Automatic annotation (TrEMBL):
Amino acids binding substrate: 11, 14, 41
Protein name per its UniProtKB record: N5-carboxyaminoimidazole ribonucleotide mutase
InterPro entries linked: PurE_ClassI (IPR033747), PurE_dom (IPR000031), PurE_prokaryotes (IPR024694)
Organism: Spongiibacter thalassae
Domain (PurE) ranges: 3-154
GO MF terms, alphabetically ordered: 5-(carboxyamino)imidazole ribonucleotide mutase activity; phosphoribosylaminoimidazole carboxylase activity
Function according to Swiss-Prot or TrEMBL: Catalyzes the conversion of N5-carboxyaminoimidazole ribonucleotide (N5-CAIR) to 4-carboxy-5-aminoimidazole ribonucleotide (CAIR).
Similarity comment: Belongs to the AIR carboxylase family. Class I subfamily.
Keyword Signal annotated: no
Catalytic activity: 5-carboxyamino-1-(5-phospho-D-ribosyl)imidazole + H(+) = 5-amino-1-(5-phospho-D-ribosyl)imidazole-4-carboxylate
Pathway where it operates: Purine metabolism; IMP biosynthesis via de novo pathway; 5-amino-1-(5-phospho-D-ribosyl)imidazole-4-carboxylate from 5-amino-1-(5-phospho-D-ribosyl)imidazole (N5-CAIR route): step 2/2
Enzyme Commission code(s) on record: 5.4.99.18
Signal peptide span: none
Length: 163
């Protein structure tokens, strides 16, 4: 089956942050492509990637970047596919720079911005699955099961002093 989600990131150093996106997509059976693409360091590759994303069969793009995080916005500028941006925690400014440079898009080009770091990456993967599930009943069922299991885990262990 061809990958429906492309997960790109600005640097290999982002991988530990972005990995949870792949884990939830794998758990829910969603094929995904993973690649380093940088607006700053590989601008021609970025343009080629974004321009051909529809033709390659992707439905959703997840883009993680840190610092001056232009990658999600630049990808969104060149494709009509939904782009989910994940701010990677930067050392100098704790990811506030990443967050603000992803979230503050000008009107007319949309990026869906997730939380800073691994939780944001996980939720980006989850949200990509939810978007695909609109047209995929089997995936929708797997998502329901994931949620039910998550709810049961909390309800079955209400004592905060126990693991
Ligand atoms: N924000 C961007 C872009 C981009 O937006 O195109 N390309 C790389 N980077 C970011 O630079 C940070 C440091 O990268 P290095 O660790 O490679 O120096 C990474 O978090 C990456 O996402």
């Amino acid at each position: 089956m061809a990958a429906k989600v492309a997960l790109i990131m600005g640097s290999k150093s982002d991988w530990d942050t972005m990995r949870p996106a792949t884990e939830i997509m794998t758990e829910l059976g969603v094929e995904h492509h993973v690649e380093v693409v940088s607006a700053h360091r590989t601008p021609d590759k970025l343009m080629e990637f974004a321009e051909n994303a529809v033709a390659r069969g992707y439905s959703v793009i997840i883009a993680g970047a840190g610092g001056a995080a232009h990658l999600p916005g630049m990808v969104a500028a060149k494709t009509r596919l939904p782009v989910l941006g994940v701010p990677v925690q930067s050392r100098a400014l704790n990811g506030m720079d990443s967050l603000l440079s992803i979230v503050q898009m000008p009107k007319g080009i949309a990026v869906g911005t997730l939380a800073i770091g691994t939780a944001g990456a996980f939720n980006a993967g989850l949200l990509a699955c939810q978007i695909l599930a609109v047209q995929d009943p089997a995936l929708a069922e797997r998502l329901e099961s994931f949620r039910e299991a998550q709810t049961s885990t909390v309800l079955d262990n209400p004592d905060p002093r126990e693991d």
